[in-house]
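Fold this complex.
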Amino acid sequence: MTHKKSVKILVSLLIIALLSSVTVSGVGAAETYSGVSYSDSLLQNASFQDIAGHWAQIAIYRAAALGIVRGEGTKFRPNSTASREDVLGTLIRLADLEGAAQNLNVDPKDEAGHLNPWGANYVALAQAMGIITDDERRKTNWQTAATREETAYWMARTLNYLPVYGQAQQAIYGFSDWRSFTKSRIPYCEAIIGAQIMNGTGGKFNPQKAITRAELAAVLDKASQVYLPSKGYRNLQGTIGNTSFVGGLPGVTNNHYQVVQDDGQSFFMMVDSGRDFLVCKNRSIGKSSFLNTGDNVKVMIGPNREIILVEATSGMQSFLDGVLDYLDLSGNRLYVTGWDGKNYIYPLSPLCKVNLSGYPARLNDLIAGQQVSLFLNGTQVSEIRSAVTYPSSGALPREANSAYGSLFRKSTDELSIRDDNGRPFTYALTSDTRYYVNGLSASYYDLKIGDYLKLTLDNNRKIVRVDVRRDDAGYKIYLARMYDINSVFGEIRFDSVSGYQSGNLTGLGTDSLVLSAAQDMEAFVGNRKLSLLELEKYRGDYAYFVTARRGDQERVVRLVVREDTERKVTGKVQEVNGTLNSLTIKYEPDRLYYDSGTIVVRDNRLIDGDAINSGDDVVVFAERESDNSLRARLIVINSPETESRYSLYRGYLRDVLDRSRFEIGSASRMEDNKWRGDYSYNDFYYDYQTRFLYADSDGVERFGDSGFYNDDEDYEGLDVYIIAEGDRALAVIILDGIRFTSESISRGRITAITADDMELGNVSNWSSYSESWSTPGGDLRLKLKYAVAVRNGRGQDPSTLNVGDPVYLLRASVNGVSGDEYASLILVE
Amino acid sequence: MFFGTTEATAVTYDGTTKLTVITPPHDKGSVDVSVRNPAPDHAEAILSGGFTFEETIAPVPTDFSGRLWNKRAIKLSWTASTVPSQYEIYMGNSSDLDSSEYLGTTAGTEYMFEDLEANRYYYFWLRTINRDGTSKFTACKDNPIYVSSSDITNRPPTATVDTINTRIELAAGRLQIIVGEDLTFWRYPTYEILLDANQRKASEIELLIPSEGIDKNSVTTIQVVGNNFRIDLPLRALRTVEYQEFRRNNAEFYVKWLLTPAPPSYLESLALNLHGYQVVGGFTVLASIQSPVRETGMSLFASDINVGWFQVRSSLTPLRAYGYDSFSRKWTDVTAFVNTVSGLVTTRVGRSDSYIIAGKVN
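Structure:
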């Protein structure tokens, strides 16, 4: 009998051992976090009755979960003002200094002036830290409301924010009422406002206004997001994938929640009878039992791997209809084109359901080109619905297929792109290929090397459609010192800023610059990619970076940390080898190596090093490595950019053939910015959109196609200059006894224009000997008397040009006479 | 006669009521005009704000000269014009200004022309340009400047990208070997790539072999030996069907040949298919052909490549190498040679695939 019982015990022990080993092996593979033993009292502290629906509700919960706000009873009184001692108290708790405060000996006489039982201690600690003077401590009424300025000042002091002096003081002067700040506190308030912990409303900060308890909670919440990560706190995000209960000893239940993050990695949250955590879901607060499979969660984790608060949202959040482009199962991503014509990329939820014509299906059953409806939970796709329209599965028709990548080579019949893994692909263009830039119809000439493309392919892998996703405006290149990096708000503060301008990095007037990092920012040190958090380690180092306008803001899109040395090499690329990742520059005895971290800019595009061509005119900023090789960090290419939809011709008007055609003789054509060839006879078409200009010693005359046709005999034999698109003349200059001499090609941006002349800024001139654009700086003033222009495929008079237009033009003197310089053929780029 | 404090350039006395004066160069703005009698009288009359200087076309410098500079350039120089302006330089190979072409613009007083060719005459012209227009051209005093071939020997050197010699790079445990183009003319049976101690430790190795070498050399075998592997790669093995197809459309490209340890999870799943054996290790061979614009896989090699894999000595004997044919679903023994002393198992690799090394469980 006893023998039998002991066997039974042994068996049950064995089962327990087995079960627990199962738990360990199942969970041990990934990160595991657990709740806290004092979850009951936390929940009680946070269960305020008067904050339901309040704007600061979530912030109050977070502050309560962190233990910063506590002992308030059942009411939080969000709209009452916060007393000075309470504000000091919460700040001291946030800074984890409460223990120090409570250990201070306080004169019982001083305690009389305080409502808060620890109030005197908080004030005493503040005095000990030098935040307030003895005089202030005795004369201030600590029970009355704190002002917003006091809150900001005390916060900066308790959390050790360094005061900001001098030119770096920027944020505070954005408020119209900055004069109401106490002068001595401005550097500290600037630090808090600059870190985006406090902000104002309606352009005002209201520094002397009392702070409400809700405002205080919101401020503490923001401060905690900035301050706590440095103390080992973390935020994780994902979807609850799996929950399971594991029964252990009688009366003990272990429960673990699997959370799958966007990148597909999981972590586990453990709950048992002794430990639980707070959950805030659908604007109410509770414990882990609130969570359901499929909830999208944000988890705050403390320095001891304990779960402080889980914010959950459940159910469908939003909805998207479109066409499936590509399902990247290994990357756990879905590429979809919405009906709005935009491209979306979403991570898949681990529980993503697929529903085809009402039946459950698998992700593998989806095919590119299918119409789909996506149900999104948070940032992840939780369900995909579609209909089966093809007769049978099995051999599926692949009617549409897409490829993504950045363009690195183009020719009239092929496009080569490099996908996200750096692999090259080349696809053929057809005459029917359509082009779209940001959803608007465009042409082949609008594609630029470095553009990020989506190619829609037909059965034969030929390109049907090209979509360009393009940044709103041009790139800017800088070199600056990274003075501060805030990975929480994705913000980088620079000082000693230099901007790239025509081959030089020149100091800018502004000494400091605060920029946000773009979502897809890539940061490098050498060829190693860094996250923004890792970049924080390089605080104080110099970096080359490129910004673009995204939305309404200039943001950093690419950054590479500069090491100690800097060398500038300019000249023409002699030789490039993509396999060896190196290039040589004429008269430069060192080879220059580039890598994935090197920033390469051409035509306002970021391109990769392999798209550099020999003959390119480059400015390279490089540094010498420990092995004595030169490594390029920033390469700017001043490309000739010869490709244009227009061509320029000159010759003599041989014959006006009919109402829509004329012929020129001794034609030469502008190729690579130089007159070349003798194309003997050339036919051109003209129509009502063609602009003509006739010039003789008496003056000039402008007219349209009928004017030209009616006087054709007078014009035959005269010199002509033509801007053409294919064989269609868009603008024609006819010269009678007038000769253009000392012609040269310039480009720039119009800075001023009148009926008679225009001024160009940012001018560069083409030198055909060095085959490069040189930028002498300064303005160029040109007469418009003999000028014709083309814009958007139409001939125009120069009077239609506007300030700000980027132009490419042929300029000349007339009849070898010094004095005025004239524009002749003008292209608006 | 003074304009401000500057004396007039020339004064002609035209009678008691008239002086003809050439104004001196002067900055923009109004100045007082003063007329002073010669000594001993020194009587003076001043008209305050009597003359306003305006900016004009800058007069062209008269001392435009050029000379050969340090065997690499022609250095052109001049003195600055009295009126602020930039200078445009035109150049030609004949004395005809009309056939000249624009060379460059500068705001300074010198210009370097570096694109010299030997046995040529160079002619230069200069003019000023500012907001008010351009001046006349002035020819360089030294026109024509003749450049002989001896004038420009010993120019500063330009580096070249070295594709001739083999280059080896080790980064993050992966060894990248770009085989040099000297392979093309290698007439010995083996082209041995020697590694240093650090490089030998690498477990992943990537070989990039230039197409020219594969095309023109069919006798050589590339040999690389590391601590974990030994590769004997006959070049003819790479002349596969895919290679010849690729060759038709592409001029110069590389074959990328990658050897990595097989992922453990893959080995485990394979072991399940191979009853009675225990897997002790394995490796993966991946080959592809890549030009700057295209990349395509290479599956079947044209002949066997010998890959040796050093295995920790196992008690299991004999060790054999196996490849799995997923079409016939059969395991094939691809062992070439087993050195039981060193633990080197040499495998005949016939295609891009994973190979395992296994021993029979007794």
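Chain A is about 15% helix and 45% strand.
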